[in-house]
Amino acid sequence: MNKSLGICAGASTIGMVLISLENGKTTVLKTASVSHEGNPAATILSTLKKFGNLENIRIATTGRKFRHLLNLPSISEPQALESALSFIDLAKEGYRTLLSAGGETFMAYLLSPEGKVETVHTGNKCASGTGEFLVQQLSRMGLDLKSMADMDENLPPHKVSGRCSVFCKSDCTHALNKGIEKDAVVAGLARMMAGKCLELLRKLPSDKVALIGSCTLNKFMVRELKKELPDLVIPEHANCMEALGAALWAAENGKVHSDNFSELIIKGNTSFTFLPPLKDYINFVEFHEEEQAEFTSGNKLALGLDVGSTTTKGVLVDLSTLKIIASCYLRTDGDPIGASRNVYSELAKQIPTGTTAEIMGVTGSGRNIAGLHAGTEGIINEITAHAAAAVHYNPEVDTIFEIGGQDAKYTWLKNSVPCDYAMNEACSAGTGSFLEESAKETLGIEVTDIADVAFKGQNPPNFNDQCAAFIGSDLKLASQEGVPLDDMIAGLVYSICINYSNRVKGNRTLGNKIFMQGGVCYNKAVPVAMAALTGCKIIVPPHPGLTGAFGVALEAAKRTQQGILSEGIFDPELLSKRKVHYKSPFICNGAGRDCDLGCSIARIEINNKIFPFGGICNRFDNSKISAHKIEGEDLITWREKRVYRDLKEPEKGQPVIGMNRSLLMNTWFPFYNTFFRTLGFGVRLPSSVDAESIEQKGAPFCHPVELAHGSMGELLKLNTDHIFLPHVRSLPLKSGDRSSACVLVQGEPYYLRSAFPELENRSVLTPVIHMQEGIDQVRKVLVKTAKNLGIKSGKATQAFDEAVTAQNLFFDDLLKKGEQFLIGLKNNPEKNAVALFGRPYNAFNSWANKSIPAKFSTRSIDIIPCDMLPRTENGETEGCNKDRNMYWATGEQILDSADYAAKHPQLFGTFITNFSCGPDSFLLSHFRRAMGKKPSLTLELDSHTADAGIETRIEAFLDIVNGFKRQNINPDSNKKDFIPARSETRNKISGITDSKGKWRPINDPEVILLIPSLGEISTDFLAASMSRDNIRYKVLPHADEKALKLGRNNSSCKECLPLQLTAGALLAHLEERKESEVSLFLMPTAKGPCRFGQYSVFMNDLVSRLEIPDLAIFSPSSTKGYGGLSTKVTLGIWQGIVAGSILEDIHATIVTAAKDKENALKRFWKVRQNLLDAMKTDWKEFSTALHKGAKDLSVIELEKPINEYPVISLLGEIYVRHDPLARRNLPERLSAEGFIVRVAPVLEWMKYTDWLNRKGLEGKAGLGSIIKQGIKGYFEKRIRSILSASGLVNFAGPDIQEIIKTAAPHISKQLTGEAVLTVGASLHEIITPSCGVISIGPFGCMPSRVAESILSENFKAISAGKKASSVLEDDTRLPFLAIETDGNPFPQLIEARLEAFCLQASRLHIRQLTPKNK
Question: Which of the ends of the chain has fewer CB neighbours closer than 10 A, N or C?
Answer without folding.
Answer: N
